Amino acid sequence: MNLLLDHLDKIIYVGVILILSGVLFFLNKKLINWLVNRYASGEKKALLLVKRIISIFIIILTVMALSAIFISKENYSALAEDFRLIAYLGIVLVFTIVFALVADFIVKYNIKKKLIKNQDATNLKFLRYIVGVVIYFIGGLMMLIAFPSLKGVAQTALGGAGVMTVIIGFASQEALSNVVGGLFIISFKPFKIGDIIELSDANMGTVSDITLRHTVIRNFDNQMIVIPNAIINKERLVNYNLNDKKACKRLEIDIAYDSDIDVARQIMSDACENHPLSIDIRSQFEIDRGVPRAKTAVVSLDRKAITIRVWAWANNFDDVYDLGCGLNERIKKDFDKAGIEMAIPYRTLLSTKDASVSFNQDDTTAVNHKTDQTEE
User: What is the Cα–Cα distance from 324 to 330, expressed in whole angstroms?
Assistant: First the structure.
């Protein structure tokens, strides 16, 4: 009993420390869960990392407070110095993550507002990555200041001109070229997020994201194509959303020589004019002169077929694909009703007792194949 009374103050001290630690753990958990559920469900991993870091600090703080009872003042001073270093690193790390999350949340909010108003948000999406890199870069330099051997490097980098020197020193030429390429894309806008582009290597799809390193394209098979910015800047590409969004469908059909050209052209023209996705791009002058809404022309006469081309227009590139599919079906059915024969390669074989003669539509020359005769 006397032993308890002698150490009663220490027991009370330990109890208070443990109670305070439990309260801090509870508040940390509740705060992070509230932030995840209320504001940043998409940043759950980052916030959970913050919670773990704070929990580690609470544990270290508790151990430091409890160790004051058992160790000497000299050893405690050294331990306190180490704790201050760890605390500084942890606080900088936590604030860096929090600032990055807040900045990301603000940029996302403005992106959402622009998308609601159907405005281009490409610049803001690219800015989102730049802001994140800058915040983490500055946070890393602030952590380096805590180490005497690296303090000079960090202060030089934070001085202004040293920032670019550090970046160039640690980044590779390829990484820098991708960043510069991304800045060129954002500045000169050959395309933006949401545009449909086609590259020279037949990659085609919708631009879904432009980051510091690469551009992401979602093709029509729902596959994500990741192309470094340095490469896409060198590519010859077609932007189907640049300026005028109207798109043309050029459809060519081969018909047999004994088919009626006028009837075939009329069927193709009527199919284009009657399709719901087809639009009229004629000027008033062309309408007054009676220029057909869908232009048709005989573009080729070769050994195999007569090629007729029709031009149809749609409001955008997405409608062009559906327009082409609908025209293929409508024209084929109308050709069948009108007796228009589409050109199909075929071969006619004539057989006799002594020889067989082969006629190939692709080559009008006849080839005799003599059969072997066996004398009896």
Answer: 10
Q: Per residue in 105-144, pLDDT tens?
A: 777 778 777 777 777 777 777 777 788 888 888 888 788 7
> Of all residues in the chain, what percent are helix, strand and coil, respectively (each to 5)?
55, 20, 25
Whether domain 188-239 has CATH 2.30.30.60: yes
**Integer CA distances (angstroms), 120 to 21, 125, 196, 206, 211, in order:** 49, 10, 14, 14, 16
Dihedral angle, C-alpha 216, 218, 222, 226, nearest 10 ° = -30
CA gap 80, 331 in Å, rounded: 86
Cα gap 272→294, rounded to integer Å: 6
Question: CA-to-CA distance for 268 and 296, rounded, in angstroms?
Answer: 8
pTM over 0.85: no
pLDDT above 90 covers a percentage of the chain that reads: 10
Which token pair is 353? Answer: 């007792």
CATH number of 247-338: 3.30.70.100
Task: Report pLDDT digits (tens) over 169-201.
Answer: 555 566 777 777 887 887 777 888 888 888 876
Residues spanned by CATH 3.30.70.100 within the chain?
247-338
